[in-house]
Amino acid sequence: MRISKEHIAQFGQHHKEFRNLESLHVYRDLSKENRSGYNVEIILCNTFVEENTRMRITFLEARDINIGSLEGILALMIKINDVSKDQMEDINYKIVEEENCTFSFYCRDFDLEII
Predict the structure, then answer these.
(1) Which of 25, 80, 84, 108 has the fewest CB atoms lying closer than 10 Å?
(2) How many CA atoms lie within 13 A of 110 on its CB side?
């Protein structure tokens, strides 16, 4: 588990380049032990660059998922907060899209990769 300022900072550095929402996918992996938990996968791109690179962020074991309107969204301002000290069971991060209140949720962990 990487609950750290560095992990959040790494996301922030990449998020500066990739702000445009390409897809948002909420799913449950029924083959795993924790079948009640959802994952949220967000793929962001940069529409001003001709390269096909994207950033995929997968938020693991998401809870209290709230998704608002996605219509007309140009760019996202995603904030990840460390809430591990709040003593919520298996919850370490709070994720909020701040610009348009597009989504918010809590999760245990997250991974990101440039694809």
Answers:
(1) 25
(2) 32
CB half-sphere exposure, 57, CA atoms < 13 A = 25
Q: Are 105 and 97 in contact (CB under 8 A)?
A: no
Give mean pLDDT in consecutive 10-residue pieces for the chain, a chain of 115 residues. 80 94 91 78 87 92 94 89 91 94 96 94
The number of distinct structural domains making up the chain is: 1
Any idea what the Cα angle at residue 75 is, between residues 71 and 80, rounded to 5°? 110
| Six token digits for residue 46 | 């940069």
Q: Which of 56, 54, 60, 71 is nearest to 27 (CA)?
A: 60
Q: How many CA atoms lie within 13 A of 69 on its CB side?
A: 5
**Which residues on neighbouring strands pair with residue 18, listed in sequence order?**
none
pTM: 0.90
